[in-house]
């Protein structure tokens, strides 16, 4: 029997352990990998092409709001993602839906809820708590614009949002500076931005209003 491989991405070791315990009772022949930061998540995504599900915390080091979710959906659109967060306000759940999550599990959920959500998504469904927040047209437009970027362009965009110069981006991502310039030009065109500052503002929009609870 082929193993079901799930990536658990959360920077709190105790919470990862609790999720792994829940998964043991939800999935037969389970195989898991763990990430504690956005950079580790990116590396593991490349190392494990056979992943079948990602459980994603929104507040890992290196993540900006929904940036990791948007990156995952761009890099591996066929791979379902369940956001698992302590911030379970209705607008946050709605944003997770609009940015492409297949499910949302509040961190306060009992073990059986986690198991039910995981089974449902692995079977091709979606699982979200009941929500009352209305769909946001601005989020829909933002998601559509960001979806035009390649995964590498999205990484460059995050560096732009951090205020890095092209030379610094090239060093951090292991690219030639001229390649970064080409990416920046393409990013601004796809996002319909006239400046790097405007592009950075779009990344800021990925962050939840008032910040994300740890």
From TrEMBL:
Transmembrane segments: none annotated. The modification 4-aspartylphosphate is found at residue 57. Residues 142-207 form the HTH luxR-type domain. Coiled coil: none annotated. CDD domains: LuxR_C_like (cd06170), REC_NarL-like (cd17535). SMART domains: HTH_LUXR, REC. SUPFAM superfamilies: C-terminal effector domain of the bipartite response regulators, CheY-like. Pfam families: GerE, Response_reg. It comes from the Bacteria. GO terms for molecular function: DNA binding. Keywords: DNA-binding, Phosphoprotein. Residues 5-122 form the Response regulatory domain. This is DNA-binding NarL/FixJ family response regulator. It comes from Pseudoxanthomonas sacheonensis.
